[in-house]
Amino acid sequence: MTTCCAARRSAARAGRSRSRGSQASAREQLADPAQSGVPAHPVAVRAGFEHHSVFTRAFRSAYGMSPRDHRRRALLREAGAAPAGD
Questions:
Q1: DSSP state, 82?
Q2: CB under 8 Å, gap of 24 or more: what pairs does 23-28 form?
Q3: Separation of alpha carbons 64 and 60, rounded Å
Q4: CA-based, 20 to 30 A from 39: which of 6, 22, 23, 56?
Q5: Residues 6+ apart with CB under 8 A from 24
Q6: Buried-exposed string 6-26: b where 16+ CB fall within 10 A, e elsewhere
Q7: What is the pLDDT of residues 10-49, one digit of tens each?
Q8: Letter string b/e over residues 55-78, b meaning 16 or more CB atoms within 10 A of that residue's CB
Q9: pTM higher than 0.85 for the full model?
């Protein structure tokens, strides 16, 4: 196994151990219309994730959708339009 792969796997293990609280906080931030211009990566870092990819996998595992999809759906709900498929 290369060093790069080992580092990614270590990061993935660390990401899985993140508390639900930090993921819930990130979920709220992504859904906040006032933060709609903030990229997902800074939200991930504030939630304690060093790598965006680890955050995305952990978020998808916890909530069944990517951070991008969650933000899109939340902002559409806020605007009063139901996203397709809901």
A1: P
A2: 23/47, 23/58, 23/59, 23/62, 23/63, 26/55, 26/59, 26/67, 27/59, 27/63, 27/70
A3: 5
A4: 6
A5: none
A6: eeeeebeeebeebeeebbeeb
A7: 655 554 555 667 889 999 999 999 999 999 999 999 999 9
A8: bbbbbeeebeeebeebbebbbeee
A9: no
Residue 11: CB partners within 8 Å, gap ≥ 6? Answer: 50, 51, 54
Q: How far is CA 64 from the centre of its chain?
A: 11
